[in-house]
Specification:
about 475 residues, alpha/beta, 7-stranded parallel beta sheet, 17 helices, 16 strands
Length: about 475
């Protein structure tokens, strides 16, 4: 299938071709015809799958349809409203709209906090066809009576799951009360939780359902890797990995804003150009930092989960979980920054013993066991034993049958790397071993491996000992 087969206008096809795209992704191929037909839509698709174009392209097509007459007098009203959870995502979506509408006579605007409201009020006095906004700033304009939403024909909730996590439900309902009753509603989400379905039932009208990937699926070209580490040695291990493995453009996730600032300062003082981005920083500073990271003036960017939404770098290879997220779904969001558009990506997690249960929850959520690499001098003592004990203490953390534990794990290896960069593999109980390799090695095999009959057994972790040599 090509974009031409989707019955989009020649101007849109031309813009898409200039962007280098020839074939629609799965979510685009399924969602675009539904939107063009005027149906409401509930779409779930993993981050990086092209879901933004999945709603932008058909909206542009409908708004540019010359057979549909606009108002006979006065300035045209806002006809499409896209609500997003973060400023960065608003800017990203706006940039996508501008790129795809380059050959159309349509206008768009981003409305976000962190910048002066006066310039936005002035912009609203001109024509705006598509408005991309964060809920809080949009309601600021509503309270000042500087915006008219009575002409909205299409409402899009992008990253709806994150908006729920951030507590925007009340604001979203207030905004929807201001919109025309007769409109098209589109909900896009990186994950597809029961909470999202309940939200959809409240305002979607007989929606079509599109779930391009399994719930909480990750991109197939992403290699997952865990590095066990003492909590006090995390930042030193991170610097060691970046420098010795020659990682460039590394996106690092910190659980807190203060932690992000401290880590960025440490890296910068130790030879790794880095900056932190989070909600406490002014929008101009955040824009500058993102631009420096995209142009590789910065080697590392330390971000919180909220600030990371909207970071869209096509060639980003490395995402590091310096702190594991408390919610397993956030792991999917985080690593969705890499492995995009058919390119290879690496998702790295630095895991202390205190975070093992968070790791187990993540493995259960994504349906695969993450391979481990031990770096001499950084790994905690008895890490493997502690992980097995943690699983056995809580039955809900026990692996499900569909996961590749048990016999598959018994035939696998744990990679060990010394401080000088040399790699070895410890023998497991079955006595198998492998030659050293620089390529990431999966402990549990590929996600497509067939599960064994003993999947309920705890993982056979390998502990290097003098007895086994």
């Amino acid at each position: 299938m090509t974009f031409t087969d989707l019955c989009l206008s020649d101007e849109i096809i031309r813009a898409v071709t200039e962007k280098g795209y020839t074939e629609p992704t799965k979510i685009q191929a399924e969602a675009i015809p539904i939107i063009l037909d005027g149906h409401d839509l509930l779409a779930g698709s993993q981050t990086g799958s092209g879901k933004t174009a999945g709603f932008v392209l058909p909206i542009l097509h409908k708004l540019s349809d010359k057979s549909i007459k606009g108002p006979s007098s006065g300035r045209p009203k806002i006809r499409a409203l896209v609500l997003v959870p973060t400023r960065e995502l608003a800017i990203q979506v706006t940039e996508n709209i501008a790129a795809y509408s380059t050959h159309l006579k349509l206008t768009n605007m981003s409305m976000i906090g962190g910048v002066g409201i006066k310039s936005q009020i002035k912009r609203l006095q001109s024509r705006v066809d598509i408005l991309v906004a964060t809920p809080g700033r949009l309601l600021d304009h509503v309270s000042q009576k500087t915006i008219d939403l009575s002409g909205v024909q299409t409402l899009v909730l992008d990253e709806a799951d994150r908006m729920l996590d951030m507590g925007f439900l009340h604001n979203i309902k207030k905004i929807m009360d201001l919109l025309p009753v007769k409109r098209q509603n589109l909900m896009f989400s990186a994950t597809f939780s029961p909470e999202i379905k309940r939200l959809a039932e409240g305002f979607l009208n007989n929606p079509k359902l599109v779930e391009a990937t399994a719930n909480n699926a990750t991109a197939p070209l992403i290699t997952h890797r865990v590095y066990p580490v003492e909590a006090t040695k995390k930042r030193d291990l991170l610097r060691f990995l970046i420098v010795n493995k020659n990682w460039h453009q590394v996106l690092i996730f910190s659980r807190t804003k203060h932690g992000a600032d401290k880590l960025a300062y440490f890296l910068s003082k130790n030879g790794v150009p880095a900056e932190a981005i989070h909600s406490n920083k002014m929008q101009n500073a955040r824009n500058r930092i993102l631009e420096e990271f995209k142009t590789q003036k910065l080697q590392a960017l330390v971000a919180t989960d909220i600030a990371s939404r909207g970071i869209d770098i096509s060639d980003l290879s490395y995402v590091v979980n310096y702190d594991l997220p408390n919610v397993p779904e956030d792991y999917v969001h985080r690593i969705g920054r890499t492995g995009r558009a058919g390119k290879e990506g690496f998702a790295v997690s630095l895991v202390a013993k205190e975070e093992i249960r968070l790791l187990l929850d993540i493995e259960h959520k994504i349906g695969q066991q993450i391979s481990e690499e031990i770096i001499d001098g950084f790994a905690p003592e008895n890490y493997a034993d502690f992980r097995v004990i943690s699983r056995s203490k809580d039955s809900k953390l026990a692996p499900k049958k569909k996961h590749n534990f048990g016999k598959v794990a018994a035939q696998s290896e744990v990679k060990r790397t010394s401080n000088n960069g040399q790699s070895t593999f410890a023998k497991n109980k079955s006595g198998t071993s492998s030659a050293s390799s620089k390529k990431p090695h999966s402990v549990s095999g590929s996600p497509s491996s067939k599960p064994s009959s003993s999947t309920n057994k705890p993982r056979n972790y390998i502990k290097k000992s003098n007895k086994n040599g």
